[in-house]
Amino acid sequence: MRRLPLNLWIGGTVVGILLLMALFAPWIAPVDPLKLDLPARMQGPGGGHLLGGDEFGRDIASRLIYGARTSVGIALVTTLVAVALGLVFGTLAGFLRGLPDRAIMIFNDAFLAFPGLLLALGFMTVFGASRTGIVIALGLAYMPVVVRLVRGTVLSVRAREYVEASRVGGNSELYTMVRHVLPNCMAPVIVLATTMFGWIILSESSLSFLGLGVPPPAPSWGNMLSTARPHAAQAPHMVILPGLCIAMSLLGVNLLGDALRDWLDPKMRG
Amino acid sequence: MLRFVLSRLFSAVPTLVLVAVTIFVLMRMVPGDPATLMLGDLAEPDQVAAMRRSMGLDDPVWVQFLTWAGQILRGDFGTSIVLGDPVLPLILDRFSVSATIVLASVLLAVAIAVPLGILAAWHQDSAGDLAVIGSSTLLLSIPSFWMGLMLLLVFGLELGWLPIVGYVPFGQDAWAAARAMILPVVTIVLVEMGSIVRMARASMIEVSRLEYITHARAKGLSERAVMWRHAFRNAFAPTWTLIGLVLGSLLANIAVIETVFTIPGLGRLMIDAIYGRDYPLVQGCLLFIAFLYVMVNLLVDLVYPLLDPRVAE
């Protein structure tokens, strides 16, 4: 057993805190994140509110904690959607090969031909700015990366001897696939899912910042930054704090992703 | 070599067709009837029916697609519902703004990040290397819009050195235009530097472990000659590909920077079109950016053999 590396510790701790904040938001948050307190408008940290008030005097500390719930919730669901779809199509392509593989990969390559947020913006046009809209848009936009990884891994794993052994032993193709091929594809998928979780937190906050994500008044770190922008001069804390939360989360997820990659999949180290 | 160029050029065609089909399908999925959207909610049913006919909405889908693709090929991207102007000139006008910022930023980011990554690799595991790799991981974790807002807060509001809003066209006042571009460009440089530094460093380390480097050293070449003449040329290829990807994804993500600094660029045009349900304009922006991305990648691939001649064989 190797010693756990430092980045796994730091990344794991940050992500752990993030998950706890998301899970227990109603118990941790000092007050209701939507409660107006007009005298505390744009008040700095300290005073009546731990981290100050926003443009309507709503408690920023509570909004940040509920914002974690929003961001982490959306990112978790979206990652699951992308990974599930990616596993299904990637396995089908790698397992059936031939025509289904060609068909799936044509669609996949079409999606991959779009840069960055562009495909997600296209989907947001169709599905509208809402939580469901974000999950569908980002889930579909990130799915192709998973499809490509899973297909490649399935193709390489199915050529191994233990897969051949299972087939020779009289097991059906399907049994061999589910029992022997898929489990051996999971390590790279887990590494990708961790990194993807970070990308999705960033994408969701970008969309919310652009006004195409989580609709106000529900707090998300992205829409908090967006509404804070015009007040940056009078209340800099309104701009500093939500961004700090996003940056800390991304740093944690990136460190955890790097550590998991080194740990689970030494071949991918670069 | 010629075969490589031709095959690469031809392989871009199906990609462009797929991108066009995806966008066509996407725009068909938009809820609501396009004819009613064009005419507004108060239109009479027979007006809508006439509009549907003139828009070709009653034709079979594949006829609609071919008509549409034909128009796109002739440069007719339709007319903006909200602004009433043809879509393509609108896009090109705003694109010149975004392109200036993106190109300046990427050039600057590469000029700083690549030498930094190479130096870090050459002094692997030194204190300097750790500082470089640590700060690039940190930079990778900072969202561009927050980086922009923080720079705005410090250099625009607190210190008052640079303008906080407003975009000035270069033709109007070059000095003011350059000043207004400093913060957006610095923001993008800082945000994009992280990944380029890490890539340059990683591929340089990989190359420096190869035998021909040991051989070059054994031959008695100076460290500098080994590094630049032998290691750098082979190590740069993966970074070159990454630069293409960064350039392309910036074309889509520039909307965020343009929002922070109130710059009337292409990204902002698209976001406003999405807000205003101006579907012809949204479609035009999607097509334009996606096509541009395919073209950037094509260009990157065509230059690649100059860095690594093995690819062309």
List unreliable stretches of 5+ residues of chain B.
Answer: none
Low-confidence stretches of chain A: none
Number of helices of chain B: 12
Taken together, the total number of domains of chain A comes to: 1
Residue share in helix of chain B? over 70%
Give an account of the 3D structure.
The complex is a heterodimer of chains A (270) and B (313). With 270 residues, chain A is mostly helical. Chain A has one domain (22-252): Orthogonal Bundle (MetI-like fold). Chain A has helices at residues 6-23, 25-28, 60-96, 98-112, 118-127, 131-157, 161-168, 173-181, 186-209, 221-228, 236-264. In chain A, helix 5 crosses helix 6 and helix 9 (186-209) runs antiparallel to helix 11 (236-264). In chain A, 47% of the residues are buried. Chain B has a domain at 93-276: MetI-like fold (Orthogonal Bundle). Chain B is built from 12 helices and no strands. In chain B, helix 5 (87-122) packs across helix 8. Chain B starts with a helix and ends in a 6-residue tail after the last helix. Chains A and B meet through helix 4, helix 5, helix 9 and helix 11 of A and helix 1, helix 6, helix 7, helix 10 and helix 11 of B.
Topology:
The complex is a heterodimer of chains A (270) and B (313).
Chain A: H1 6-23, H2 25-28, H3 60-96, H4 98-112, H5 118-127, H6 131-157, H7 161-168, H8 173-181, H9 186-209, H10 221-228, H11 236-264
Chain B: H1 2-28, H2 34-39, H3 45-54, H4 61-73, H5 87-122, H6 127-140, H7 144-158, H8 174-208, H9 211-218, H10 223-260, H11 266-275, H12 279-307
